[in-house]
Design brief:
- By secondary structure, the protein is of the alpha+beta class.
- The protein has four domains: 100 residues; 87 residues, 2-Layer Sandwich (Ribosomal Protein S8, Chain: A, domain 1); 126 residues, Hypothetical protein af1432 (Orthogonal Bundle), CATH 1.10.3210.10; 82 residues, Cation efflux protein, cytoplasmic domain (Alpha-Beta Plaits, 2-Layer Sandwich), CATH 3.30.70.1350.
- The strands form three sheets. Strands 6-7-8-9 form a four-stranded mixed sheet.
- Helix 14 links the parallel strand 7 and strand 8.
- It is elongated, with a radius of gyration of 61 Å.
């Protein structure tokens, strides 16, 4: 119990003491914390103050740097302004100097112009005095002297022109002759062909002269029927065992020949039989014509011709021109033109096609009005041939001016084929007429004394008066005669014009 009381008393005494002790401890801690806080506050204030002073120092330094940079820039700007002012001042001085120089030049030009004007006036006066003096000395006025001078200059120019023309023509002729000879000789050699002149009559052999009476028939009814249905003249004369069929249409003449041959073989000759036999012969000839056209197309290495053109081409087998078979002539022209085109780099196919068809108009020229060139061009156009082929056909006799190389080659090939020795036969009357025309063209020129047409009209020798025509004039005369021949006459091949003055000769071939 006593221990309990002691404990209680101790507890009662310990409680206030512990409270006091704790309070003391807390107060001591609070005071220490306050002192710590004051110390921290003082430290923070000192640090803030230090930072403020450092910031102020840094700001002052930055401001100082900016101030120095601004001052440097200002100095540079001032230096640039000073330099610009100096340049402006220098430019003003230069402009002032240029202005002064220009004024000096203007003054110099004015003085020079005045001096030139004075010299020009003096020169004009001197020329006028000289002209008057020349007029007094020569006895000619200014207009007369000018005319005399112009005539002299004209003669000199004509002389120089004639020499130039002669030199150029000689050079061009030599080169053209060389190349033409090469091409033409090659073409002619590669297409060498035999020619046999054909006539406008056909001879039908008879087994005996007794058949002549049967062909004539009672009161001539058989021969009249044959002539009426065939359109061919049947000539029965004293020629033994032969009857002559005459006509310009080769197809009709061939049908009549075949008809008469069949009648002689059959032996029955009367009007009804003549009509039936004629129809059979006509069908055979039409078939032969078609085969001849197709064969010609194959020989010319062509394709695509219309049926109408093939038939017309075959009809040329029975057509002649001056005794030359037109179909054979057309094939030869096609081959010649093709070879020349290959040598010269022209269009071979167009040239061959135009060469084969160039005389196609002769197949119907006795039925249609117009020249065979125009008829042929129209036929080619209607049968959808190209414009190049149509133009070459139309221009092969110079009815129009050739515009393409192909047209010129067809024209040349046509002339070569026609001019081959023995290819064509001409009548004596037309031959003499052509020679007279050539002679008249030459002798009609002033200064010509005599003219000789030689080598069947392929060479003309002109004798001129030496007192009226000099060497240069002879060159011009030969050219003028050639141009006149080209303008007025149609001629095959080439005609050489030789102008002879004293011992000299000037040639120009056309």
């Amino acid at each position: 119990m006593t221990e309990l009381l002691v404990a209680i008393i101790v507890a009662i005494v310990a409680l206030p003491a512990g409270f006091l002790i704790r309070k003391y401890i807390v107060d001591a801690r609070v005071g220490s914390a306050g002192k710590e806080a004051d110390k921290l506050r003082a430290d923070a204030e000192r640090e803030i103050e230090t930072m403020q002073r450092a910031a102020q120092v840094e700001a002052r330094e930055e401001a100082q740097k900016l101030k120095e940079k601004a001052e440097e820039e200002l100095k540079e700007r001032r230096a640039e302004i000073v330099k610009g002012e100096q340049r402006l001042e220098d430019r003003e001085k230069s402009l002032a100097n240029n202005e002064a120089d220009l004024k000096r030049r203007e003054q110099s030009l004015s003085d020079r112009e005045a001096n030139n004007k004075k010299i020009g006036d003096d020169l004009q006066q001197a020329l006028e005095e000289q002209r008057q003096q020349l007029e007094r000395l020569s006895g000619l006025s200014t207009a007369q002297a000018k005319d005399l001078l112009l005539r002299q200059v004209e003669d000199e120019v004509r002389h120089d022109m004639a020499k130039m023309v002669r030199n150029i023509e000689d050079e061009a002729k030599r080169e053209a002759d060389r190349r033409a000879r090469n091409v033409l000789s090659l073409s002619i050699q590669r297409t060498a062909a035999n020619h046999a002149a054909e006539t406008t009559v056909s001879v039908v052999p008879l087994p005996s002269d007794e058949m002549k009476g049967r062909i004539i028939g009672r009161e001539g009814r058989n021969i009249r029927a044959l002539e009426n249905i065939s359109g061919i003249d049947v000539i029965i004369d004293d020629t033994p065992e032969a009857v002559v069929l005459s006509g310009f249409d080769g197809v009709k003449r061939e049908i009549a020949r075949l008809t008469l041959t069949k009648l002689l073989t059959d032996g029955r000759i009367h009007p009804a039989r003549i009509e039936d036999t004629y129809k059979q012969a006509k069908a055979e000839v039409d078939k032969t014509i078609l085969e001849a056209g197709e064969q010609a197309m194959l020989e010319a290495n062509l394709h695509g011709l219309s049926d109408n053109l093939i038939k017309l081409l075959g009809r040329l087998k029975y057509r002649t021109s001056y005794g030359q078979n037109v179909l054979a002539h057309s094939l030869e022209v096609s081959h010649l033109a093709g070879i020349m085109a290959a040598e010269l780099g022209a269009n071979v196919k167009i040239v061959q096609r135009a060469g084969l068809l160039h005389d196609i108009g002769k197949a119907v020229d006795h039925q249609v009005e117009g020249t065979h060139t125009q008829i042929g061009a129209n036929l080619a156009k209607k049968n959808r041939e190209s414009q190049a082929v149509v133009h070459a056909i139309e221009a092969h006799h110079s009815d129009i001016e050739p515009q393409t190389v192909e047209a010129v080659l067809v024209q040349a090939a046509d002339a070569i084929s026609a001019a081959r020795p023995g290819a064509r036969r001409d009548s004596l009357e037309s031959y003499i007429k052509r020679l007279e025309s050539l002679e008249n063209i030459a002798v009609s020129r002033p200064g010509v004394e005599k003219c000789y047409v030689m080598q069947a009209g392929r060479e003309i020798r002109v004798m001129v008066k030496p007192t009226e025509i000099n060497d240069d004039g002879a060159a011009l005369l030969s050219r003028e005669i050639a141009k006149e021949i080209e303008k007025q006459l149609d001629y095959p091949g080439q005609i050489k014009v030789t102008v002879i003055r004293e011992s000299r000769a000037t040639e120009f071939a056309k």
